[in-house]
Amino acid sequence: MQRSSTDKRHFIIAGVLVVVVSLALYALLYVALPLPLQASTQAATIDWVFQAHMILLSVLFALVVVFMMYAVVVFRRKDGDSSEGEHFEGNTPLEIAWTVLPLIAVVIFGYIGVTSLRTVTAAQENEVVVDVEGFQWAWAFTYPDTGAASADLVLPVNQPARMEMTSRDVIHSFWVPEFRVKQDAVPGQTTVLRFTPTVEGEYTLVCAELCGLTHYNMIAKVKIVSQEEYAQWQQVQLAAMGKTAATAGSIDVAQGDAPAVDN
Q: 207 and 171 in contact (C-beta within 8 Å)?
């Protein structure tokens, strides 16, 4: 085979290798970095964005490494060869391609990011509102519609939830890996996080912002239960606080009686 850098056969071979390496690397990453259970409607959107970025990273890695290694192997200097390397001025179509194609990719992924963010943060009807307070090093949850309070976060399945968060001291970060979404709790401000849990079960809320000595232990239980269990749990919490549903307001979320939520 000719060793000229302008021989199209080199580009064809390198192109095929880029495709093969890209697919192999993506498959390796997919197996080596499994994602947690999808337990919210937002998780599917975020996972799709994540996978799209993994594909892009695999292609970019292959483009750099394959062409570099191909040049090292095919165009290496042979023993006894003291001549200078081939001189060429440039390749206009190639230069246009590596300028335009990355620009197109940036625009596409920018659009994907904006639309995905809009989707996962959109307000929903009949949201369960929870006031969340982070502090060193625990979480507290209050349900303003009823006045119930708990150290655990309990939510009904398949009903949109809105966390209105603040911090008592330093910045904390609300993150349940199975829900995918994450939001900081900032002192002196109220930040909002929305998600719709879709799988009943018990999860772990962790702080994803380094916040002090026992940051690693700033966790809370998250329980996703049926509508009926949620109503019963609210009744138990209110009874423990000496309240009743009549004084605290309706908690029959299964019937859609929760007040409408504005943005």
A: no
